[in-house]
Structure formats: structure tokens, C-alpha cells
Amino acid sequence: MSTTRTIRLTVVCVLFPLSISSFLPVCNQGENCLLPDCFCSTFNHPLDPKEIPQIVYFGVDDGVKPEAEAYYNRLFGQERKNPNDCPISMTLYVSGEDTDYLALNEYYDRGFEIAVHSMSHTVIDTGEKLRAEAKGQRDNIINLSKNITEDMIHGWRSPYLRTAGDAQIEVLQNLSFAYDVSLLYTRKTMTDINPWPFTLDYGWTLSCEIQPCPTNRHPGFWVVPVNAMRDYGDWGACRFLDSCVNKPLSMNQTYKYIMDNFRSHYHGNRAPFGIHMHAKWFNKAEHVEAMDLVIHDLLEYDDVYIVNINQTLEWMKRPTELQFIERFRPWRCTSQSGSIITFHGILIFILAVLGIGFYVKLMSKLFG
Fold first, then answer.
1. Were 203 and a residue from 1, 21, 139, 324 both cysteine, which residue would form a disulfide, CB within 3.0 to 4.6 Å?
2. What confidence category does residue 97 fall into, taking pLDDT thresholds of 50, 70 and 90?
3. What is the pLDDT of residue 318?
């Protein structure tokens, strides 16, 4: 075979996976794609941006270690509440490295989402590896936490954002995962807009930045694009909050870096603003100080909600305008088991019972 023919065949083999989704039918929202089970890939949501709550979600990777408790208590304490007066939330992507599994119960009870990030934190590039890692780590969370069950675990993130392409989605669907947040999208400048989460009913329609990407149809399975942040100065992209080449060097620069990215979403298409990061980023005091101030300032907005990724997808399935958002059940102040019983509710009930008992005794003495 000639060198020229070899080059041509190589080019075809490389480019074909990038373009195969173009042979799939075009997704038209409201016609061949209907919520809550299907949502087309898009940069512009059908709702008016002014009527969309600006979602901010945190996806924190790796082992959940005891020292992280102080950071999470400070940054995501129960006193920090969204405009609907409900506590803010986050998603923990848990790997098997040094994880305090019993601590996961407390985080879940506080409203955090618990998701899976592999057992070994190695490159997972085949369906067989993924099945072993995803099922194995989910089983670890279930068996070692004692109180978290399979139906409470919805999401997966691949280490290093390396995936197994279509085999990845097939395995995750077979294991009853609802979504994947491993596929990267990189905008060119801060003024560009980011894509919304969508289902793979019509394949992955964005550019494939880390090969391979899913190219087939996977009806009903959600993907949350890892929308890379722009670095401090808008010189380049950061796959994770903590992966910039041009890193901020102070608390003020870190704060500006995060808030500039937030504002580009808030004043743009209102796509969810995802803060993808590793837990070790909190080891520096200036990072904690900056994030503390970021969260404080985000909660000053009356149309910004800090929720977990599963709650983000619940809104995607049933888009609710800002004027009705306080009635949106998945964001209401219930425990994750669906109970609305709270300490204050129990206290009021006990006082009411005691009051009725006292009233009956008093009436019996007066008229008995």
C-alpha cells in the first residue's frame, strides 16, 4: 500500500468518529424530543433567559477525607440558603482513595448529592473497566456507608475526563445511572456561551475534545457537559477550577477568576454554571477565603440557586420559571427521602399536644 493511500485511510479513520452523529436525525425540541425524557443539545434554552434561575453547581472529585469536613461546614453550612430559603447543596464524586464512607451519610442527610468517581482513579477507556469501577465503587458507597442505597446514586464522572465512548453510556445505562458528567466542552473566550445539559437521544453533537466520545443514540440518558472555565485574564481554558496554566496567585485574583466566569453565564444564556474541582484545592487558605466570599456574594442574588447536579437535571426535565420556582418541588426544603418533618415541626407538634392536654385538664377541673 502506498504512503499516500495509508495517509488517506488514516485521515478517514480519525475523522469518521467525529462526524458520524451528523448521520443521525436532527433533534427538534417539542417535535421528536419531548421533556421530561428528551432534551436537545442547545446553546439557547427555550425559556427567556430573564425567566431562568441561574443555576450554580459544585462537582467535587476524589476521596472524601475527614479534613474536608471543616471546609464543607464553612462553605456549605445549613445557614447558607437559596432565595427559596432552602440550604444550598453540592455534588461529591467519590473515589475509593482514603474515603471516610460513614461521613457520606451526614453529607447526604444535609442535602449533598453522592455520586461515583471510580475505585482506583485510573484511566477507564473500555466498557469492561468501567463496569468494574462504576459498580465496584457504587457498591463500596452502599455497603460501607450503611445508609445510602442504590436508588440514591445517580451520577458518574470519569477520572481525567477520559471515557470509553459509546460503551461508557451503554454500561452506565445498564447499571441504572441517570447521567454522566465527563465530556468536555471548551469555549474560546469569556464572551462565548456554553451548552446546556442534554440527553443523548440524538448523540453527542458537540466537538469531541477528548477521544472517544459517544456517537450513537442513547435515549433518555443525560450528559452534563464539563464546560471549561476561562482562566484569570481570559487567556486560556481550565478543564477544572484548579487546572489553569495561568493560575490566580492571590485570594482577590481567585475571587475575580470565579466571579468573572459566573457573570458570563448570568449575563449570557443562563446555562448552569458548573464549578468542577478536586477536593485538595481547598488545602490553601486563600482558596477557601475566596470561595467563601464567592458563595456569600452569589447568595446576594435573588435569582441564583446553588444546587447539586441531580437537582439541576430535575429542573432541566421540568423547566420552571423564576416566578414559580418556590413551588418547584425538587428544590424545596425536604429531606432527600422526601420527608418534610423538621426539628421545628416536631417541636411545634409536641407543644401543641402538651397545650391540648393542659387545656383538657383545666376544663375538667373547672367543669368536672
1. 21
2. confident
3. 98
Mean pLDDT, the chain, integer = 89
Q: Has residue 340 been placed in a domain?
A: no
Which amino acid is residue 79, in one-letter code?
E
Report in angstroms the alpha-carbon separations of 258 from 42, 252, 295, 360.
24, 10, 10, 60
Domain count within the chain:
1
The amino acid occupying position 223 is: V
C-alpha cell at 125: 477507556
Q: Has residue 10 been placed in a domain?
A: no
Please tell me the distance from the alpha carbon of residue 168 to that of residue 151, in angstroms, as a whole number.
20
Cα–Cα distance for residue pair 238/231, rounded to 1 Å: 6
- The 3-state DSSP class for residue 179 equals strand
Cis peptide before 272 (omega within 30 of 0): no
CATH code, domain with 145: 3.20.20.370
Least reliable range by pLDDT among 9-23, 46-60, 85-99, 108-122: 9-23
Residue type, 186: T
Q: Is the pLDDT of residue 78 over 60?
A: yes
The predicted pLDDT at position 24 comes to: 81
Which of 22-31, 38-47, 308-317 shows the lowest mean pLDDT across its residues? 22-31
- Measured between alpha carbons, how far is 170 from 176 in angstroms, rounded to an integer? 10
Name which of 82, 58, 65, 17 is nearest 299 in CA terms. 82
CB neighbour list of residue 337: distance below 8 Å, 6 or more residues apart: none
Residue numbers of the domain that contains 295? 53-324
Instruction: Give the separation between CA 263 and CA 242, rounded to whole angstroms.
Output: 19
Give the mean pLDDT of 322-345.
70
pLDDT greater at residue 303 or residue 345: 303
Confidence of residue 207 (pLDDT cuts 50, 70, 90): very high
Distances (CA, A) of 312 to 24, 289, 352: 27, 26, 38
CB-CB contact of 40 with 196 (8 Å)? no
Instruction: List the alpha helices (DSSP H) in the chain.
Output: 3-19, 68-75, 101-109, 127-145, 166-174, 251-266, 285-298, 309-317, 343-367
Report how far residue 57's alpha carbon sits from residue 78's, in angstroms, rounded to the nearest whole number.
Answer: 16
Q: Give pLDDT, residue 218.
A: 98
- What totals of helices (H) and strands (E) does the chain contain, helices first? 9, 13
